[in-house]
Amino acid sequence: LEIAKRAVNEFILGKPVHVVFTGKSGTGKSHLAMSIAWDVLERSNYDRDVLYVNYRELLDQLRFAMNDKDAQRQIQGALMAELKTADLVIIDDIGAELGGNKTSDSSRYNNDTLTGLLEARQNMATVVTTNLTAKEL
Predict the structure, then answer these.
(1) With contact defined as beta carbons under 8 Å apart, do 8 and 48 qualify?
(2) Which CATH number does the domain 2-130 belong to among 1.10.357.10, 3.40.50.720, 3.30.720.120, 3.40.50.300?
(3) Which of 54, 56, 80, 136 would suit a FRET pair with 22, their CA atoms being 20 to 30 Å apart?
């Protein structure tokens, strides 16, 4: 909880905050990340852009559009534009795409997508939640 409070305070001061919440499923990581989002919105008088991305759902949408390259480019282009301009981005549930099988390696596509998301957020406030450990990440 203290990490979340400190992250909001630093964000309000204009610092590029990066926070990663790790832990088992059901421990409140997503709830805490959304609390950060709401606190930022309230303390900024709703003058900040906050974007929430569920990583598993994003991958599902991108996979669905794989057979239609135009649709895939449109989704990726729109997402990257939002990611690069949002004041705060929450990327929720990294690791859920593994389906609970932490022993399997995530695909190159999943890794490339995540790398693109994180590169788009360099020096910008980002909160990530995951059920993976630091070693598994």
Answers:
(1) no
(2) 3.40.50.300
(3) 80
